[in-house]
Amino acid sequence: MTQTTSATADWIACHRCRTLVYGKRLARDLGVCPDCGHHAPITAPQRLAQLLDEGSIVPLPSPVTPEDPLGFVDTVPYPERLRRARESSGLDEAVICVKGTIAGRPVVVTAMDFRFLGGSLGIAVGERITRAADVALAERAPLVMITASGGARMQEGIFALMQMAKTSGALAELDEAGVLTVTIVTDPTYAGVAASFATLADVIIAEPGARMGFTGRRVIEQTIGQRLPDDFQTAEFLLAHGLVDDIRPRAELRSVLARLLTLQADRPGLPDWEDVRDGTARDHADGQDDRATRGGPAARPTGPPSRRDPWENVQRARGIDRPTTLEYLATMMDSFIELHGDRMSGDCPAIVGGPAVLDGRPVMVVGHQKGHSTAELIARDFAMPTPDGYRKAARLMRLAAKLRLPVVTFIDTPGAHPGLEAEERGQAIAIAENLRLMARLPVPIVAVVSGEGGSGGALALGVADRMIAFESSIYSVISPEGCAAILWRDRTMAPSAAAALRIDAASQLRFGVVDEVIPEPDKGVQDDPMLGAERLRKALTVALDELVARPVQELLRDRRRRFRDIGIASVDVDQEGGAK
Q1: Which of the listed residues 72, 104, 346, 423 has the most CB atoms within 10 Å of its CB?
Q2: What is the pTM of this model?
Q3: pLDDT surpasses 50 at 442
Q4: Is the separation of the CB atoms in 405 and 396 below 8 Å?
Q5: Dist. CA 519–CA 472, nearest whole Å
């Protein structure tokens, strides 16, 4: 916004659309233009007042740090620049660090202010953010970082550069301790701040239009001699390229943070991931059911026998009217927050995921997403994930391990995306990395085959402690059509291939791949989605109730044994020559 007097102007012109907005209305709207939605910069004190509960703010002590380590002088001595910045901003540095609460939940917040030397990162800023992280670590309170910066402070030279390493190390300690970190990206966030603590948070939320990057647009255009896209480095560009989790208007930030903060809670009986990887974890659960000590998972419940022709089952599993992952989440889960991106290159729409609450228990959900129309299927790439999708899933599962959240996956895909770009970006490696990650993930994992489970693209979400399948679902090493084309040399033999592969849920139950089969109405789960969701909710609750009480080392031991035994343990053979 542009105004003639910073504090008393009655009318303020929007910087983007130039509409005149009444000053008091603009203040009520938190600096957001009511006409075009432009998010004008606001001060760090205003940020804190907006986000934190009234009366809860407790400033953290400001450490004494060197102010002019280089004796730097350009057109004016550096101490004079600091004096002017303090006088004009009313702040003593470019960041304010406080403790407080959001919706009653404790939190540590660092709020940067661009008015103070462009929010630059120097010794004082780096030390304050690091000490705020230390407080978050000591109190196991989530750390929320609000960024606004042009980069590292040139007047402090190499000392400013080193703050990137110091603050990143502080974030690493919070990762090891399982403390939630969140970044709110505001405009602008560049260079040293973007390349350190700002982008290391578990969850990154950007305001609409906020810009973030390492090198500024003008420098890049001058260097490469090309004009960049109009939306380059904006929040919208970052979301499309998998670099932030979400974009939220300023008015929604407080409620989003309140929901995210519910994820920070100690989980009794679950040691830190580092302890598990180092082999130093100890059993913390007492009074275990003897099922947890018999050397394998609990006995599998029985399920309904297959009631229809195998090819009919294939058609049902692929039905365009079957409930999707997002529909199950909307029906069964509370407070689902979808997170986006692999933090590397993209955000695959075929994979959705994020934290949710199931019957009062926080969980991390990851699943394939189809659609009910041709347009939806195309937009979701027919639920065939790219490497970006599997890396997004892996990022969310690592976050679940950090926060000690059980993982629930939904499998419904014809397979991983086949194509040149997917292969160039490491499709096989992305799937393999997920299999390895899930094999040792130190939290309970329950997988649900809700429709079509196709090959490695499905298994990449299927290395679980418990596998639940809907009655009409299928799970197979290859599609019936692919099998028929290779072995029969005739794709029309797909129905015969479906029968030979025994890909129905009832067969998977007998093989020990699936632990429970959820019955469906005669016309399929799509005939009564609410009933299907309720049956699934109960099955998930029972499975998680058992799994979360188990010591982590035991959980991992049995998960490994589960997959070692599949195909090795003796099976009965029916009169037709197949396993039964």
Answers
A1: 346
A2: 0.85
A3: yes
A4: no
A5: 8
